[in-house]
Specification:
Strand content: 25-35%
Number of helices: 15
CATH architecture of the largest domain: 4-Layer Sandwich
Number of domains: 2
Distance between the termini: 61 Å
Structural class: alpha/beta
Mean pLDDT: 89
CATH superfamily of the largest domain: Metallo-dependent phosphatases
Radius of gyration: 24 Å
Strand order of the largest sheet: 6-5-4-1-15-16
Largest sheet: 6 strands, mixed
Shape: globular
CATH class of the largest domain: Alpha Beta
Helix content: 25-40%
Low-confidence stretches: 158-163
């Protein structure tokens, strides 16, 4: 006879500082107050409940940005997850600051594949064993290769192992800890759904991994997918929803006997409010509202940024602002720097900060026409159209018509004239992207230094945008074919 015990496993991912409920069709949706209310109600009504968060608690709101994640951790402490793994945006405020944030957390933060380069020691506890009513669950945390892009700005801390190496890490931990009579093994990943499926296919079934709870790709599911006998689930993003497993765990055979899964919407109609947590939110919100409700500009209409991997109205505006303000020929603006689908027509400083939260420095370098063509051609390789690479919004003057069939440009001009190979351009780029030139644009520092040593020309992207819009309150942009993809 089976010894079956029931476990409810809740999971969120990519919260991105999504603290506040928003009105949708006459009801409020999401926000940490309602999410906390739902989690608390499940904890009261079910006997065995564990709640896990799969990375990217940070970035996306002005409250998070203003307090560099400390406000987020205070709210997460009240939400009280049983275990959390880190995502790539946890690195945004610096690895040293992340280690400080971890000390502020009253919940365990795990990761198995971030290392200190000099010693090879892990930065975090790699795993956590959670026990409830005799059910022992082993959680292991893994992060995306994207973290290396941010970690490269720290020369001593932050080395990454790739997915193949992550497989060996999972095996090593399972071999070491499953001898403790682990009933269920769960990977908390922040690597995206495609890499989760690839990871599952590579795992040895003898290691006993039952579930992968993932994040990073903001994947919305109707039901989990199964690869190599491992159940994989994501819960979209933000606080508008949460994933819920109701598991029947066979504690004799140390495996899952059966399960059901739900994608649970978080609304005021189905979830109670957490009044205590709302007081914490109001404390931070009252301070940020006073600072961020200043009106910066008024557009004729909302400028949109519906997709990262194509030219957008908002991308054109920001790229043009940097080009004009800095006096460069071309601005290459990381499309992922724009974190909202639209801005305006009324633009308050807070909305601007939420739309453009990454306040990087800007580097200026010189590139030949041949190099500029090569960088943009590399940007437009096939992976760009599946959203797996960095994409750039380009400033006014560039017109590039790219054929996916020929994998080259049929037109590549600047200010109406065909770009020649030996023509020299001054190019602006954010420091995050400058730190990853080879990975993102397939060009080395040595190649650029042949023309001139790159240098910082501004220490604040946001200062430039704020100052420009304050002096140009009625700007407008359209999609005009700066980069056109055919075939």
């Amino acid at each position: 006879m089976k010894n079956i015990r029931h476990l409810t496993l809740l999971h969120s991912n990519d919260l991105h500082g999504d603290f506040l409920a928003e009105p949708v069709d006459d009801t409020f949706v999401g926000g940490v107050s309602l999410l906390s209310g739902y989690v608390s109600s499940v904890r009261r009504t079910e006997r065995n409940v564990l709640y896990a968060v799969c990375g990217d608690m940070f970035r996306g709101s002005i409250i998070d940005a203003e307090y560099k994640g400390i406000s987020t951790v205070e709210m997460m402490n009240l939400l009280a997850p049983d275990v959390v793994t880190i995502g790539n945006h946890e690195i945004d405020y610096g690895i040293a600051h992340l280690l400080f944030i971890e000390k502020c957390a009253t919940f365990p933060v795990i990761n198995a594949n971030l290392y200190i380069k000099m010693s090879g020691r892990r930065l975090f506890t790699p795993c956590q064993i959670a026990e409830t009513d005799g059910i022992r669950v082993l959680f292991i945390g893994l992060i995306t290769p994207d973290v290396m892009a941010q970690a490269k700005q720290d020369t001593l801390i932050g080395s990454f192992i790739d997915t193949e190496e992550a497989v060996r890490t999972v095996g090593k931990i399972c071999n070491a800890y499953r001898t403790l009579d682990i009933d269920c093994t769960v990977l908390l990943t922040h690597i995206g759904i495609a890499e989760d499926r690839r990871l599952a296919q590579m795992l040895d079934p003898a290691w006993g991994v039952d579930i992968i709870l993932g994040g990073h790709s903001h994947t919305v599911m109707e039901q989990p997918v199964v690869e190599n006998g491992i159940v994989i689930a994501h819960a979209g993003s933000g606080t508008d929803n949460v994933g819920r497993f109701d598991l029947a765990v066979d504690t004799d055979r140390n495996c899952i006997d059966s399960y059901t899964w739900q994608f649970v919407p978080i609304t005021e109609e189905t979830c109670e409010r957490d009044v205590q947590l709302e007081k914490i939110i109001d404390k931070y919100r009252s301070i940020t509202d006073a600072k961020y409700q200043r009106l910066v500009a008024r557009f004729n209409h909302a400028l949109t940024h519906p997709e990262r991997n194509r030219e957008t109205e908002l991308g054109n505006l920001f790229a043009d602002i940097f080009r004009e303000s800095l006096g460069v020929d071309v601005m290459l603006l990381g499309s992922g720097s724009i974190r909202a689908n639209a801005l305006g027509p009324l633009v308050e400083y807070g909305g601007l900060r939420e739309t453009f939260p990454f306040d990087d420095s800007i580097y200026m370098f010189k590139a030949s026409g041949a190099q500029l063509r090569h960088m943009l051609r590399f940007m437009l390789r096939d992976e760009a159209f599946s959203g797996h690479t960095e994409f750039y919004q380009v400033s006014e003057g560039i017109r590039a018509v790219y054929s996916r069939t020929a994998k080259d440009f049929s037109e590549f001009s600047f200010n109406g004239k065909t770009v020649t190979d030996d023509q020299i351009f001054t190019v602006g780029i954010q420091s995050y992207h400058y730190s990853n030139l080879k990975k993102f644009l397939d060009i080395t520092y040595a190649e650029l230094e042949q023309h001139q040593k790159p240098r910082v020309v501004s220490t604040s992207c946001l200062d430039i945008i704020d100052e420009y819009l304050s002096g140009h309150p009625k700007v407008d942009r359209v999609v005009e074919g700066r980069i056109t993809v055919t075939d």
